[in-house]
Write a structure and sequence with these properties.
Blueprint lengths: L2 H13 L4 H11 L3 H6 L2 H4 L2 H5 L4 E10 L5 E12 L5 E7 L5 H18 L5 E6 L8 H15 L8 E4 L6 H15 L20 H19 L9 E5 L3 H12 L3 E6 L3 E4 L6 H10 L7 H4 L4 E4 L14 E4 L8 H9 L4 E3 L8 H9 L3 E3 L1 H4 L2 H15 L5 H25 L6 H19 L4
Parallel strand pairs: 3-4, 3-5, 6-7, 6-10, 10-11, 11-12
Antiparallel strand pairs: 1-2, 2-4, 7-8, 8-9
Helix pairs in contact: 1-2, 2-6, 6-18, 7-8, 9-10, 9-16, 9-17, 13-14, 16-17, 17-18
Bound molecules: NADPH dihydro-nicotinamide-adenine-dinucleotide phosphate.
Length: about 450
């Protein structure tokens, strides 16, 4: 390995020893940009990598709120303002009990590369809290969101930092946060949050954007490899949240048969094809569990999750779309998928494949659509939401969807071109890292030592 990369990697591991997800994300990028570092010897003197692995700012704060029984609850919250090189910090807010600094930093780090790939003027950030929205009443969700925003509002703004949704943060939570922001600041700063409701500044197609974008990216990837397509292919999709649902909708429209979806408890397998209207009703309306699917489709199968290896990856499929969470595809799961003949994996979630799983797929010739590129449709459409807010104007659904399709197609092309240029043909994981890194490094050099 190049000595500059290995030194920075060692230092990062030492400095962040208790942050495994962060180290994993940094290692994945640094080990794939070697040819760029070899070509630009000046980067070492300029400390490009050292600056890239240190967030500009991390804010940690306490969130106190009152539950329905009158008891005070306390959560820990974060905002990682990772990089403002190419635009205001931009990235979602995750509400999940597993949230910690390592996960926030890994997501912030991934976000700067993803946002660079979109070609739009957005920097990178991420935030969230270890608050668990599951089982909370509407009033409790509002109380938490208001308390969370009471502190967060000091640090954000439409030209400073623009948060959005992520796991556990959907339109309801963004609505409560936006209301509180507006109340405290006494200004209608529409572009301060994205993923807003359509009645007060949201963009059409933002809800669908990450899942649709993933499908467009994978369509291009399949086309570039022997002119394949989704038509007639079997697809399994983990998760049953925002990304999973709209990926399912779009790949079905493209002629695929989705046979399985999941949540953190287990997965349903419906060999006739998943009834997406029912999944939407269970998840978007009733906020229920995927197991409830069997109440209507008794011939479908339910497999409970009992270990780190999700049962969904034991199902035979042509294309796997992990759309739940990080490290959900282990090496064991990757081996099972390959044994069952998988041809492509499209990462809808952030870093859903472990490093070993990704390496195994690439070694076995499975096509991998890496998260930074494949799930960039969400943030790209958030940037389109910001531009509509600035113009005080709305695009139609079709206009946004067409822009999204165009952006995803361009992202695929830049991954493909960078991979080719640096001798990694068909390795879109390396292609995405190189294309994004080059853009960020160039901006860093241009802006001087800051
Ligand atoms: P949602 O909260 O809407 O859905 C998340 C889904 O993943 C749920 O089905 C959830 O199941 C499941 N899940 C969550 N945590 C775990 C876990 N630890 N183990 C197994 N399953 C789990 O989130 P999104 O769909 O918005 O996000 C999914 C992924 O996509 C995340 O990695 C996110 O960072 C990424 N992403 C999202 C974007 C967006 O626009 N929303 C943009 C780009 C990336 P359960 O209900 O049981 O918790």
């Amino acid at each position: 390995m190049n000595s500059y990369i290995s030194r920075v990697l060692e230092e990062t591991k030492k400095k962040n020893a208790n942050e495994p997800e962060y180290i994993q994300a940094v290692e994945e990028v640094l080990t794939s940009i070697e040819p760029v570092i070899e070509k630009h010897k000046e980067y070492e003197k300029l400390g490009i990598l050292e600056r890239m692995v240190e967030p500009e700012r991390i804010i940690t704060f306490r969130v106190s709120w009152v539950d329905d029984s009158g008891k005070v609850q306390v959560n820990r919250a974060f905002r990682v303002q990772y990089s403002s090189l190419i635009g205001p910090y931009k990235g979602g807010l995750r509400l999940h009990p597993t949230v910690n600094q390592s996960i926030m930093k890994f997501l912030g780090f991934e976000q700067i590369f993803k946002n660079a790939l979109t070609g739009l003027p957005i920097g990178g950030g991420k935030g969230g809290s270890d608050f668990d929205p599951k089982g909370k009443s509407d009033r409790e969700i509002m109380a938490f969101c208001q308390a969370f925003m009471t502190e967060l509002q000091r640090h954000i703004g439409q030209d400073v930092d623009v948060p959005a949704g992520d796991i556990g943060t959907g339109a309801r939570e963004i609505g409560y946060m936006f209301g509180q922001f507006k109340r405290i600041r006494n200004a209608y700063e529409g572009g301060v949050l994205t993923g807003k409701g359509l009645s007060y500044g949201g963009s059409l197609a933002r809800t669908e954007a990450t899942g649709f974008g993933l499908s467009y990216f994978m369509r291009e990837l399949l086309k570039a490899n022997n002119n394949q397509s989704f038509k007639g292919k079997t697809v399994t999709i983990s998760g049953s949240g925002n990304v999973a649902i709209y990926a399912c909708q779009k790949v079905k429209e493209m002629g695929a048969k989705v046979v399985a979806m999941s949540d953190s408890n287990g997965c349903v397998y419906d060999e006739k094809g998943i009834d997406l209207d029912l999944v939407k009703e269970i998840k978007e309306v009733k906020r229920g569990r995927i197991k409830d699917y069997l109440e209507k489709h008794r011939d479908a199968k339910y497999m409970e999750r009992t270990s780190d290896d999700s049962p969904i990856w034991t199902i035979k499929t042509d294309i796997a779309l992990p759309c739940a969470t990080q490290n959900e595809v282990t090496l064991n799961s990757a081996k099972k998928l390959v044994e069952n003949g998988v041809i492509a994996v499209g990462e809808g979630a952030n870093m859903p494949c472990t490093k070993e799983a990704t390496e195994y797929f690439l070694e076995k010739g499975v096509l991998v659509g890496p998260a930074k590129a494949a799930n960039a449709g969400g943030v790209a459409t958030s940037a389109i939401e910001m531009s509509q807010n600035s113009m005080r104007y709305y695009y139609s659904f079709d206009e946004v969807d067409k822009k999204l399709d165009c952006i995803m197609t361009n992202i695929f092309k830049s991954c493909q071109n960078s991979a080719k240029e640096y001798g990694y043909e068909n390795n879109y994981v390396a292609g995405a890292n190189i294309a994004a890194f080059q853009k960020l490094a160039e901006a860093m050099v241009a802006q001087g030592v800051v």
